[in-house]
Amino acid sequence: MAALSLGRGVSRLLGCLHRASAPWRAVSGRIRGAPDAAQPGSYLALSAQAAREPAAFWGPLARETLVWDTPYHTVWDCDFSSGKIGWFLGGQLNVSVNCLDQHVQKSPESVALIWERDEPGTEVRITYRELLETTCRLANTLKKHGVRRGDRVALYMSVSPLAVAAMLACARIGAVHTVVFAGFSAESLAGRINDAKCKVVITFNQGLRGGRVVELKKIVDEAVKHCPSVQHVLVAHRTENKVPMGDRDIPLEQEMAKEDPECTPESMGSEDTLFLLYTSGSTGMPKGLVHTQAGYLLYAALTHKLVFDYRPGDVFSCVADIGWITGHSYVVYGPLCNGATSILFESTPVYPNAGRYWEMVQRLKINQFYGAPTAVRLLLKYGDAWVKKYDRSSLRTLGSVGEPINQEAWEWLHKVVGDSRCTLVDTWWQTETGGICIAPRPSEEGAEILPGMAMRPFFGIIPILMDEKGNVMEGGDVSGSLCISQAWPGMARTIYGDHQRFVDAYFKAYPGYYFTGDGAYRTREGYYQITGRMDDVINISGHRLGTAEIEDAMANHPAVPETAVIGYPHDIKGEAAFAFIVLKDDRDDAEKVVEELRAAVAAKIAKYAVPDQILVVKRLPKTRSGKVMRRLLRKIVTGQTRDLGDTTTLEDPGVITEILTAYQKHGARRPAK
Ligand code: 7RM
């Protein structure tokens, strides 16, 4: 394998990208054929090389960044037309060895996790040695209860060291974890467990969030009634309270205490599955995206280091829940692979008050803080005093993820939280992409950052904008569908059990390209700004949801033959759901039905999915072919009624005035629930 050959400029650039990091030392020498404008070793030159010679770019990085049992023989083998994606073929490694053992060998007592528990000031520090031991005990417990390489294990756990150990324990024995966000309902949990055919579920007796108890075990009990594949439920303890234990329930800590604190790691192929993570699409049930071992880990680690300017000794804080991809890549896998100290945030941004994040930053001397715009929008309403009260001088990088960050929130985060001195990175990526794809960093030293823009593609990411006809749009000042034209190591490999769905969802709209589902704008300078989803996926407080999922959850109500859900702008949540429903003729108890629908959505999906507004209409706007024109409903709700666009395909245009009248009567903005 040809090593990268890059010039002196590279070391300089990489020196500022991330000081003293081994992988980039391998990247030294000169890039051939880089654009004239690009200094050798500059961000532009490296980007150009990653795009033109992926094997020469990623190969040495993988070799130097990861610990391998067996080296790979082929850097990549990908074909977007069939959805075939493979990286570092022939290689063997273990992800938990990369995240734990390699650091334990060098500095066993360095802190891997700081568990910022719900109650402020009660944090717990866990060293790499302790985390390895806990992971091994848990891995041995899983083995004892029949979990083998390739088996699926569901985690329904709050953010905690034990949850991280459970993920790594699966990785250690080659089992596949699927973490289900602990805010999902029993029915959602059961759906995921059944799709993945999980053998074991790991949970807590209860969770704690914002001072409130969450009945995790009860919800698991409810779910597993409908899950024939589940043989055991391992129950750990987060609170003192006793919960009823049934035949298949096993007290986790007691079992772990009996097990050996060592466990031989399985040697896994680069392309064996590491985890499944379910995410919403525009149609059908959530998709179980498959991420594999080597490529995912490399990409998470490298983006963690370069986008956030993580340096050895830093305390890195991503406040996302481990139930989302952000938690997987930037609470667990990226930071731990880099030997970082990673914060596990169990609480909420306003518990016990709106100073929580910044008090934590001061107390734990956090260097990087990565969170969601929805929390920023909420906190800025509480005023600057909650921020200024605390010392934030340890902060160097601020990050935003999950949804577009509006100008006001960006400015506030930058000026008030970051005292105009921190680097603020708006990072765009998806469950599917495995790690950050577009962000202002890495870039040339001192390069500008514009508010509310993800700006620059990461190494190896080639963004393409498409027009409606599927033509590639060149140049600047254009908007289109955001696609990516070349594979990168972190991307998902398939949808669990349904490769055709993977191909259809991501590679069919624009043959030969990965379609993200998002729209984007490219400036004249070539920077990218994400404009939002182009499909029927909405984003409530950074949580991704299909409008069809919400409609499905309401569909079983006997009094409601039809519904249509859309997303509309919301001050704090970013987007909220608005449901239009049709009642059966003979019903005159609309309010009762509406309450039942709210309850149904909470039970079938989660509380956050419940529509803020539900409006009864006589009928939905349909085209002659019977499709609901959600676009029209969106225009009505956002007050754009003067420009309704093309309505000629409507079966009966009279429906517009009908719905408008109902909407105006309903009152434009009822208080959000
Ligand atoms: C990481 C994550 C993915 C969707 C994505 C976008 C939206 C995420 C940004 C963003 C604008 C951003 N994974 N999104 N980040 N939109 N600017 N910086 O959120 O699978 O849960 O959601 O989120 O629509 O397609 S996700």
Written description of the protein model:
It contains 21 helices and 31 strands. The longest helix is centred in the N-terminal third of the chain and has 17 residues. Bound molecules: 5'-O-(acetylsulfamoyl)adenosine. The site of 5'-O-(acetylsulfamoyl)adenosine has 22 residues, from helix 12, strand 20, strand 25 and strand 26.
Write out the strand line-up for the largest beta sheet, numbering strands in chain order.
12-11-8-6-7-14-15-24
Global geometry: globular
- Low-pLDDT windows of residues: 1-37
Give the class from helix and strand content and strand pairing: alpha/beta
Q: Treating each run of at least 4 consecutive H or I residues as one helix, how many helices?
A: 21
Mean pLDDT, nearest integer?
92
Tell me the strand percentage band. Answer: 15-25%
Question: How do the strands and helices of this protein lay out in sequence?
Answer:
Layout: H1 8-17, H2 22-26, H3 43-52, H4 54-65, E1 74-79, E2 84-89, E3 92-93, H5 95-106, E4 111-116, E5 124-127, H6 128-144, E6 152-156, H7 161-173, E7 176-179, H8 186-196, E8 200-204, E9 207-209, E10 212-214, H9 216-224, E11 232-236, E12 249-251, H10 252-258, E13 268-269, E14 273-279, E15 287-292, H11 294-308, E16 315-318, H12 325-337, E17 341-345, H13 356-364, E18 368-371, H14 373-382, H15 385-388, E19 397-401, H16 407-417, E20 423-427, E21 463-466, E22 472-473, E23 478-484, E24 494-495, H17 499-507, E25 514-522, E26 528-533, E27 537-540, E28 543-546, H18 547-555, E29 562-570, E30 574-582, H19 590-604, E31 613-617, H20 630-637, H21 654-666
Parallel strand pairs: 4-17, 6-7, 6-8, 7-14, 8-11, 11-12, 16-17, 16-18, 18-19, 19-20, 30-31
Antiparallel strand pairs: 1-2, 3-13, 4-5, 9-10, 14-15, 15-24, 21-22, 21-23, 23-25, 25-26, 27-28, 29-30
The site of 5'-O-(acetylsulfamoyl)adenosine has 22 residues, from helix 12, strand 20, strand 25 and strand 26.
